[in-house]
Protein backbone atom coordinates (compact mmCIF):
# COMPACT_ATOMS: atom_id res chain seq x y z
CA UNK A 1 0.00 0.00 0.00
CA UNK A 2 1.05 3.59 -0.41
CA UNK A 3 0.47 4.31 3.30
CA UNK A 4 1.00 2.10 6.32
CA UNK A 5 -2.36 1.57 8.07
CA UNK A 6 -4.07 -0.51 10.74
CA UNK A 7 -7.66 -0.32 12.08
CA UNK A 8 -8.88 0.26 8.52
CA UNK A 9 -11.86 -1.23 6.72
CA UNK A 10 -11.74 -2.91 3.33
CA UNK A 11 -14.60 -3.40 0.87
CA UNK A 12 -14.40 -5.64 -2.20
CA UNK A 13 -16.46 -5.05 -5.34
CA UNK A 14 -17.59 -7.65 -7.83
CA UNK A 15 -15.35 -6.14 -10.53
CA UNK A 16 -12.23 -7.09 -8.51
CA UNK A 17 -11.51 -3.70 -6.96
CA UNK A 18 -10.67 -3.65 -3.24
CA UNK A 19 -10.90 -0.33 -1.37
CA UNK A 20 -9.21 0.43 1.98
CA UNK A 21 -10.61 3.36 3.96
CA UNK A 22 -8.99 5.38 6.74
CA UNK A 23 -7.20 3.69 9.61
CA UNK A 24 -4.24 4.58 11.79
CA UNK A 25 -0.60 4.89 10.68
CA UNK A 26 0.94 4.64 14.17
CA UNK A 27 0.92 8.41 14.66
CA UNK A 28 -2.40 9.72 13.39
CA UNK A 29 -5.75 8.66 12.00
CA UNK A 30 -6.16 8.70 8.23
CA UNK A 31 -8.78 10.08 5.87
CA UNK A 32 -7.10 8.57 2.82
CA UNK A 33 -8.57 5.91 0.54
CA UNK A 34 -6.56 3.45 -1.56
CA UNK A 35 -7.70 0.75 -3.95
CA UNK A 36 -6.32 -1.99 -6.14
CA UNK A 37 -7.81 -4.30 -8.73
CA UNK A 38 -7.34 -8.00 -8.08
CA UNK A 39 -7.53 -9.67 -11.47
CA UNK A 40 -7.67 -13.45 -11.59
CA UNK A 41 -3.91 -13.58 -12.29
CA UNK A 42 -2.81 -10.88 -9.83
CA UNK A 43 -0.21 -13.14 -8.20
CA UNK A 44 1.49 -13.73 -11.55
CA UNK A 45 2.47 -10.06 -11.94
CA UNK A 46 6.22 -9.85 -12.55
CA UNK A 47 6.90 -6.45 -10.96
CA UNK A 48 8.30 -6.25 -7.44
CA UNK A 49 9.14 -3.65 -4.81
CA UNK A 50 8.19 0.04 -4.74
CA UNK A 51 7.42 0.20 -8.45
CA UNK A 52 4.80 -2.53 -8.06
CA UNK A 53 3.20 -0.67 -5.13
CA UNK A 54 3.09 2.57 -7.13
CA UNK A 55 1.13 0.94 -9.92
CA UNK A 56 -0.84 -1.67 -7.94
CA UNK A 57 -2.36 0.69 -5.34
CA UNK A 58 -4.17 3.81 -6.53
CA UNK A 59 -5.55 6.73 -4.52
CA UNK A 60 -9.21 7.72 -4.43
CA UNK A 61 -11.00 10.77 -3.00
CA UNK A 62 -10.31 11.08 0.75
CA UNK A 63 -13.05 10.80 3.35
CA UNK A 64 -14.53 13.98 4.90
CA UNK A 65 -12.44 13.45 8.03
CA UNK A 66 -9.87 11.06 9.47
CA UNK A 67 -11.04 7.99 11.37
CA UNK A 68 -9.96 4.50 12.34
CA UNK A 69 -11.88 1.42 13.53
CA UNK A 70 -14.65 2.11 10.99
CA UNK A 71 -16.90 -0.31 9.11
CA UNK A 72 -17.88 -0.52 5.46
CA UNK A 73 -20.02 -2.51 3.04
CA UNK A 74 -21.03 -2.50 -0.62
CA UNK A 75 -24.75 -1.64 -0.79
CA UNK A 76 -26.90 -0.84 -3.83
CA UNK A 77 -23.97 0.04 -6.09
CA UNK A 78 -22.14 2.22 -3.58
CA UNK A 79 -19.88 1.79 -0.56
CA UNK A 80 -21.28 2.80 2.81
CA UNK A 81 -18.82 3.77 5.56
CA UNK A 82 -20.07 4.06 9.15
CA UNK A 83 -18.77 5.06 12.55
CA UNK A 84 -15.16 4.82 13.52
CA UNK A 85 -13.01 6.55 16.06
CA UNK A 86 -11.25 9.91 16.15
CA UNK A 87 -9.30 11.58 18.94
CA UNK A 88 -12.59 12.67 20.58
CA UNK A 89 -14.18 9.19 20.66
CA UNK A 90 -16.66 7.04 18.75
CA UNK A 91 -18.52 8.41 15.72
CA UNK A 92 -22.09 8.03 14.49
CA UNK A 93 -21.36 9.51 11.06
CA UNK A 94 -22.29 7.74 7.82
CA UNK A 95 -20.90 8.45 4.35
CA UNK A 96 -21.54 7.00 0.92
CA UNK A 97 -18.69 6.53 -1.56
CA UNK A 98 -19.44 6.25 -5.27
CA UNK A 99 -16.41 4.37 -6.67
CA UNK A 100 -14.24 5.93 -9.39
CA UNK A 101 -15.63 5.86 -12.93
CA UNK A 102 -15.20 7.85 -16.16
CA UNK A 103 -17.16 10.85 -14.80
CA UNK A 104 -15.57 10.82 -11.32
CA UNK A 105 -12.00 9.47 -11.65
CA UNK A 106 -11.37 9.70 -7.87
CA UNK A 107 -14.86 8.68 -6.81
CA UNK A 108 -17.28 10.88 -4.88
CA UNK A 109 -18.42 11.18 -1.26
CA UNK A 110 -21.93 11.98 -0.04
CA UNK A 111 -22.86 12.53 3.60
CA UNK A 112 -25.78 10.40 4.80
CA UNK A 113 -27.95 10.42 7.94
CA UNK A 114 -26.01 9.62 11.12
CA UNK A 115 -26.64 6.41 13.02
CA UNK A 116 -28.55 6.74 16.29
CA UNK A 117 -25.55 5.54 18.31
CA UNK A 118 -21.80 6.19 17.97
CA UNK A 119 -20.00 2.99 16.95
CA UNK A 120 -16.37 2.01 16.50
CA UNK A 121 -15.15 -1.53 15.88
CA UNK A 122 -18.67 -2.36 14.73
CA UNK A 123 -19.85 -4.48 11.82
CA UNK A 124 -21.82 -3.49 8.72
CA UNK A 125 -23.75 -6.29 7.03
CA UNK A 126 -25.94 -6.57 3.95
CA UNK A 127 -28.63 -9.24 3.97
CA UNK A 128 -31.66 -9.50 1.67
CA UNK A 129 -31.01 -5.99 0.26
CA UNK A 130 -31.01 -4.58 3.81
CA UNK A 131 -28.09 -2.89 5.61
CA UNK A 132 -27.39 -3.38 9.32
CA UNK A 133 -24.90 -1.78 11.73
CA UNK A 134 -24.18 -4.24 14.53
CA UNK A 135 -22.37 -4.02 17.87
CA UNK A 136 -19.26 -1.96 18.49
CA UNK A 137 -17.20 -0.78 21.44
CA UNK A 138 -19.58 2.02 22.51
CA UNK A 139 -22.12 1.15 25.22
CA UNK A 140 -24.56 -0.44 24.78
CA UNK A 141 -22.61 -2.97 22.71
CA UNK A 142 -25.52 -5.27 21.81
CA UNK A 143 -27.51 -3.00 19.50
CA UNK A 144 -28.53 -3.39 15.88
CA UNK A 145 -29.57 -0.54 13.60
CA UNK A 146 -31.08 -0.91 10.13
CA UNK A 147 -30.60 1.63 7.33
CA UNK A 148 -34.12 2.04 6.06
CA UNK A 149 -36.13 3.81 3.38
CA UNK A 150 -39.55 5.30 4.03
CA UNK A 151 -40.62 3.39 0.92
CA UNK A 152 -41.24 -0.26 1.90
CA UNK A 153 -40.00 -1.45 -1.53
CA UNK A 154 -37.40 1.12 -2.62
CA UNK A 155 -36.06 0.84 -6.18
CA UNK A 156 -32.49 -0.44 -6.44
CA UNK A 157 -31.28 3.02 -7.57
CA UNK A 158 -33.05 4.73 -4.65
CA UNK A 159 -31.50 7.95 -3.33
CA UNK A 160 -29.90 6.85 -0.05
CA UNK A 161 -29.68 10.46 1.20
CA UNK A 162 -33.30 10.23 2.37
CA UNK A 163 -32.83 6.94 4.26
CA UNK A 164 -32.59 6.85 8.08
CA UNK A 165 -31.31 4.49 10.77
CA UNK A 166 -33.84 2.59 12.89
CA UNK A 167 -32.80 0.76 16.04
CA UNK A 168 -33.95 -2.85 16.03
CA UNK A 169 -34.62 -4.83 19.16
CA UNK A 170 -31.44 -5.32 21.21
CA UNK A 171 -29.79 -8.70 21.44
CA UNK A 172 -30.78 -8.90 25.12
CA UNK A 173 -29.08 -12.24 25.77
CA UNK A 174 -25.71 -10.84 24.64
CA UNK A 175 -23.58 -8.31 26.51
CA UNK A 176 -21.87 -7.32 23.28
CA UNK A 177 -21.47 -8.31 19.65
CA UNK A 178 -17.83 -9.00 18.75
CA UNK A 179 -18.16 -10.43 15.25
CA UNK A 180 -20.60 -10.75 12.39
CA UNK A 181 -20.58 -12.05 8.82
CA UNK A 182 -22.92 -12.50 5.90
CA UNK A 183 -22.72 -15.80 4.04
CA UNK A 184 -24.55 -16.22 0.75
CA UNK A 185 -24.85 -19.77 -0.53
TrEMBL record:
SUPFAM superfamilies reported for this sequence: Kelch motif
Name recorded for this polypeptide: Kelch-like protein 18
Tell me if Repeat is a UniProt keyword of this record. Answer: yes
Organism listed in the record? Schistocephalus solidus (Tapeworm)
Where would one find coiled-coil regions in this protein?
none
Question: Which keywords describe this protein according to UniProt?
Answer: Kelch repeat, Repeat
